[in-house]
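Re: Re: ligand-bound prediction request (bumping)

Still looking for help on this. To restate: I need the protein modeled with hypoxanthine bound, output as structure tokens. Inputs repeated here so nobody has to scroll up.
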Amino acid sequence: MGAIMDRVRRCVEDIRKKTDFAPRAALVLGSGLGGFADKVRAAAQVDYSEIGGFPVSTVPGHKGRFVFGYVGDTPVAVMQGRVHYYEGYPMEDVVLPIRVLGALGAKELFLTNAAGGISPKLASGSLMLLTDHITTFVPSPLIGPNEDSLGPRFPDMTEVYSLRLRELAKRAAAKRGIPLEEGVYVQCTGPNYETPAEIRMLQALGAGAVGMSTACEAMAARHMGLEVCGVSCVTNLAAGLSDKKLDHQEVQEIADRVSGDFQGLLWELLAGLA
Ligand code: HPA
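Reply:
Sorry for the wait, this slipped through. Here it is.
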């Protein structure tokens, strides 16, 4: 067993001391979505601090725990809080939780985030379903010795965001009457927001929205064969696309405002898996 699997197994052992819950799907909650975890019919909770070697977020307002329970009849592992590359954690730590979710038995992974809108189709408050991503500006989490028991050295990334889950997401949005745009997510390192010149570059590259998480998690998940779905909450127009300066507090306010629709969409989507 390689060093990565060793860490994953130790985390799973610590979680298994508290619960034998078997999730079918996993959900990572981004900004403003924390309340979703409270609606899950919880079977168990495990704080990240109870798991040896597990990364703990340094961002104010980000809780750090797993909630295991049911969305409708679907058994789900929910991550309330994630760590970001900009916090200083190596990529291996940033994606460790994703690998743990896979090792716990999740087959489908739902990733959510707050993002800056680049596409003219997106307004502050829009939801965007991820069709693909650009990770060229952050290091790959797969750099280093390959963990062959997880996946191949050179994994295919042709369909990171599952067409099947995208169709289910669109159907769930339509059923609830929630507008859902589609586009390519680009991950930048943060923690600074981008410059207007960087946003013009990202626009020319075909990016619809920009954020500081998710794509690296999706890559680690695809490496180990999980089916991935991603949704961004556009909390602001990206730098230079409006006359406003970017501000974390405003990002949080918009994320909170949209959270009703966002939670409704996720609920419909996850409950519909069972
Ligand atoms: N850029 C990067 N990440 C973000 C943004 C942004 O404009 N808004 C929310 N997360």
